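Entry:
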Amino acid sequence: MPLSTYVLGLSALYHDSAACLLRDGELVAAAQEERFTRTRHDAALPLESVRYCLREAGIELGQVDHVVFYDKPFVKFERLIDTFVSTVPRAVGPFLRALPPWLRHKLWTGDLVSKALGWPGRVLFGEHHESHAASAFFPSPFDEAAVLTIDGVGEWATTTWGVGRGNKLELLGEILFPHSLGLLYSAFTQFCGFKVNSGEYKLMGLAPYGEPTYAEQIRRDLIDIRDDGSYALNLEHFGFLTQNRMVGRGFERLFGGPARKQESPLTQREMDLARSIQVVTEEVMLRLARHVHEKTGLKQLCLAGGVALNCVANGRLLREGPFESIWIQPAAGDAGGAVGAAYSVWHTYLGNPRPTRTRDSMHGALLGPAYEDDRAERELAALGAVQRRLPPGDAAEVGARLLAKQNVVGWFNGRMEFGPRALGARSILGDARSSSMQSVMNQKTKFRESFRPFAPSVLLEKASRWFELSAESPYMLLVADVAKQHRVSSDADATTSGLSRLGLPRSTIPAVTHVDGSARIQTVANADHAEYHELIRAFDALTGCPVIVNTSFNVRGEPIVCTPTDAYRCFMRTNIDALIVGNILLEKSEQPPFVESEDWRRRHELD
């Protein structure tokens, strides 16, 4: 029997470090480093993720054939130097601050990886946007497709498009730094008082509370959008070339004063800015998609890059764009670059064929570690948890009954998700029919801003009855409106604005309906996630509603939980009423007093 070929893919050193492992071209495991280290957006070399991937495959590092890094540090450093030379002397300060980590380790990434892993072979390097493109096309269900990648910046490229056919992927067009749709969106993220590389979701969630009053000003003063979707930024209003911030004084003059300070009250200006940049972003993506369709003549589109996580724009692409089908890499940001780099080695470097598929090869993004009941029971017992083992197969019924009684339930089942979305393996769940659930879960469970919406998980076979969605959305990356028959109107809606619109009834599933009547949908298929599907089916049988609230199992500022220990601690720090870990039930009312660890106290400055 021939030996298997293993390819280890890595992304690291910027944000959202991750590792993945292919065995004979099949994705065996993938995980983000933050889940193990508990440091959100951890940028360190993903050593814990590598160890997990090897354990999952049951191999040692010596059995790995190829190790590949997702971008080319020397080319990225070339951009840093070139940018400095073109902006000197204004960029001296930021350049001198950026230089030390490059000289210490980023320029020597190959040596750093080899030494840290104990890898004796040569480390391969992919290009950043090629890795994104490969992560979009090679795991997709399409034999051929157009590919579009959009992010902040890789080495030089910020936007690329091309064609994938079989085991071939060719990039045909690109837009180069400093012109970047991702950086434009991040500039507004920072200006509205949120953190770059993590607050973009908040800006997208805030947009429906505002009006696009600044959209024309953005088009006129900040970005020149051409008919083919290509664009150029007016750099005089930005600070990222010469300062340690995204926006310059010109930006402040355009939009009526300084940026909002983090955690300060939101004003109508921030809501209108969020709506305006969202509208412009959607316009650029639609024009790009139409241009790519015209040039390629293909019916399918694959998306990746951080901007591909903008599920509102993705929903418009599906509804209004020229492509019949769209597939989006669930880990569309830098973490997914590890997957693309590994697939590029397997198909492009090694020349292996790509099998014909009817579904994608991401395995529902359930690529992280799982915990058998016996192991979970031992972990929980060591924490002093009061628990009871449910009969096999009863977890779904018990969970459904708890949800139907308006309980908030922590749901820990099977392999952990890869990517930023919780998809029913590490989730906090609630009753979508509840008018108070959105407020309760935001303020007392997630400890996050009240305006942020929650996503629905819906049975795939019933999704079209509840949402105006014509496609599967297994990775929670498409937004669509709630179906007309489930909407309700509110007289107060016409006379309110801003955050005062929060809480007004809009549908029979208010906990997952945003203020504009939309929802970020996860369709759940039995083939992808049988246990989670059974939970929602049981809830539907009890209530007549095949929709539940699904949000990530974490609190604000922390990564999604990975282990039963992580889950129990999050359970005890919040108002989650019950926790189900596999076939183990824990109820809050039965738990002993929880004593916070000193490490967590230090980390969150609770002393």
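The domain at 176-328 is CATH 3.30.420.40 (Nucleotidyltransferase; domain 5).
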